[in-house]
Amino acid sequence: MSSRDGVLRTSAAGEAIRVHATLAVPLALAAATLGGLVAWILIVSGLDGRAMDDRGLISILPPAAYLALAVNATAFVLSLRLRPMPVPLLAGELLVMVLMLYGAPGFFEEMPRFVTAWLHTGFADAIDTTGQLHPLRDARFDWPAFFTLAAFVRSVAGVTGSPDFLTWVPVVQVSLYLGPLYVIYRSMTADARLVWFALWVFVLTNWVGQDYFSPQGLNVLLMLAVFAILLSAFRSDPARVPGRLSAVAGWIRRRLRIPLPRDIVIDPSGGGTSPSARTRIGLMAAVVLLVGTSVASHQLTPFAIVGGVIGLVVFRRMTMSGAVPIMVVLIVSWLMFMATTFLTGHLAGLLEEVGRTEQLASSAVGDRLGGSPGHRFIVQGRLLFTGAVWLFALVGGLRRIASGRFDLSMAILAAAPFGLILLQSYGGEILLRIFLFSLPFMAFFVAAAFLPSSRPTSWGVSLALLVVSVALAGGFVLARYGNEKADMVTAAEYEALAELAVIAEPGDRIVSVNHNVPTDYFEWEEHRFVSLPNEFALGDAADVIGEVEAATPEGNDAYIVLTRAQQAYAELFWNLTDDEWTQRAAALEAELPLVYRNEDATILRWSAPPA
Amino acid sequence: MERAARMMANVRWNEVALATIIATAAVLTFAVVADNLPLREIVILAYLAVGPGAAVVWLAGIDDRALQLSLVVPLSLAVDALVATGLLYAGIWSPTLAFAVVAAITLASVLLGVRERTAVVPLVALALLPPIVLLMGQL
């Protein structure tokens, strides 16, 4: 009989008081969460994006906004103390935090952010318009499933023509990640506090911004779904630490006087399932379906998935060893038969990159440390944030071992993406991708650093959870929105490019002085896009015009686009001052006729001189 | 007692099957008839995001509620993506046809997943014919 029943027997008045007291705390926490959300929206929607400097969002975010984040962090940490666990409240608090952190730009920016998301929409629209793929123009068409999915859904639902949906894609996508993540964490521990706090940590640390409208955004969801199935339905039973490792633990216990327990259990049982034979077949088919979609939609994620699965099989943490050959066959078949255009042009280069980790270090870290002072500060902040996440994860793993729990499956999946480092630099972005693919599992260990065992949460631990939550939320805002001045797209920029789409004829060249302009969104299939970053950065208008002339076929014109976002990009990444930008733009304007101008964009036309 | 439990289980299965079939029929009809209604986008998006995955989850016989819920959207998107990509590679780019194929896969998964068929399910399947015919008329 529950304690609530016991209260019911005392007196009607007593019951009323106790029930009120029981509900009062969750209701108060829910109200605080909603209050924090409303405050956040009011504060953020009043921001002036144009006032941002080269440090991005943190340069205009007032202290009250951080206070709103702290209110919601406090409500979440207090909710973790309630018994029984208030699952709907915790889920609501998580989703509110997702909306606050990942939806922030949508409350004050005029248009969806980030040019690559616009480009991907352009790809989808091109498929819908032409009914064809274009791998010769862009290698991403060799992995087209994401773009065809987008073209299909946008077309059949009748939502083509508007980019507004891009704003909320990160919010929706990260919310969807939480489902399979919950299953993964639950399969590793029976401690519900650890499960929910790990979800919270994931939301607060996923700063790399790959959840925009992109193949990798979808693929993280597919990857998490695959591992949710494998870890909950095909996981090996808990096991004792084998003899050699046990001897090492004994040595540590004796020599270093660290109180390791004598019995350390590998993957202690959580809340997994025991499916029937029929369900196991169905789940295997689901894994093949998910991996097949991943193989057809992204170059890198299938390798991250198969790397993790191989690790689980090698260390005998998974019973479905047949998954490995199936996945390998899928990947190899796609590369050999479907991605031939890309491989033909890039195979030699790809093979050269394999194992060249020194090049990776320079392209992934060294090159990113350049730029304006504010941008360098942001990059250093990102490195610190990333290092702190990995360090806390290490501490969490060790604390779990010290409490007798060796979460080997999670350790394998957290470590496996680092194997990608041997493959290629991926345009200097491989470290970002490694962080992305390992974060779901790292977040579990970060949470475990504070909740390593199922002992009741003391107030000291709750305070630590609150402090780390607020610190991570602040770090998230700094790291994720550090390039926001360049990532923001204004209505004036959009209007200029829409006008250009009307002016330009099929076959005309659309020239940008760096890639940070969403020209590709408009009628991608009809135009050719040329980016001339080096010529413009070096400041010689004659060189720019010479390149434009060389890139433009006879009978066509070229349009040179200069926008606010491109200038912001040049400031952040090239350390180009306002004066330097203005001089370069004026030099071009002196040579070429003006076609269009508004507050954020200038469009110039180059035409072949008369014969 | 056991017999009653079995009956309850059957009712639940058939109710889910019925709900999916009716939803598919409704969405197909809506897609064709309600061409300019604002709700059309939301209804179709919701169906594509949930319907096929729910049917696959149902066919696989997954009992764990958390796993069910977490797989519905990823599996739906996987089915949608592979159907659309398959048609594109086959040289038949038609979002309407892709929608019909996704709906057919959803229905087939539901029907295959029904453990103990009753007369209700085939009858409802027959009820799907008009919207399918309507849809085919749009191709």
Summarize the structure.
With 611 residues, chain A is mostly helical. In chain A, 64% of the residues lie in helices and 5% in strands. Chain B has one domain.
Structure description:
- The complex is a heterodimer of chains A (611) and B (139).
- Chain A has helices at residues 3-10, 12-45, 63-80, 87-102, 104-108, 115-130, 145-157, 169-188, 192-205, 215-233, 243-255, 277-297, 301-314, 323-338, 340-353, 357-366, 373-402, 408-415, 430-448, 459-480, 484-487, 491-503, 533-538, 541-551, 564-574, 578-591; strands at residues 239-240, 265-266, 405-406, 509-512, 528-531, 558-563, 594-598, 601-606.
- Chain A contains 26 helices and eight strands.
- Chain A has three domains: 3-108; 115-267 and 276-456, no CATH class; 490-606, no CATH class.
- In chain A, helix 12 runs parallel beside helix 14 (323-338) and helix 17 crosses helix 19 (430-448).
- Chain B starts with a helix and ends with a helix.
- In chain B, helix 1 runs antiparallel to helix 4 (95-113), helix 1 (2-33) packs parallel to helix 5 and helix 2 (39-60) packs across helix 3.
- Chains A and B meet through helix 7, helix 8, helix 10 and helix 12 of A and helix 2, helix 3 and helix 4 of B.
Produce the secondary structure layout.
The complex is a heterodimer of chains A (611) and B (139).
Chain A: H1 3-10, H2 12-45, H3 63-80, H4 87-102, H5 104-108, H6 115-130, H7 145-157, H8 169-188, H9 192-205, H10 215-233, E1 239-240, H11 243-255, E2 265-266, H12 277-297, H13 301-314, H14 323-338, H15 340-353, H16 357-366, H17 373-402, E3 405-406, H18 408-415, H19 430-448, H20 459-480, H21 484-487, H22 491-503, E4 509-512, E5 528-531, H23 533-538, H24 541-551, E6 558-563, H25 564-574, H26 578-591, E7 594-598, E8 601-606
Parallel strand pairs in A: 2-3, 4-5, 4-6
Antiparallel strand pairs in A: 1-2, 6-8, 7-8
Chain B: H1 2-33, H2 39-60, H3 65-89, H4 95-113, H5 120-127, H6 129-138
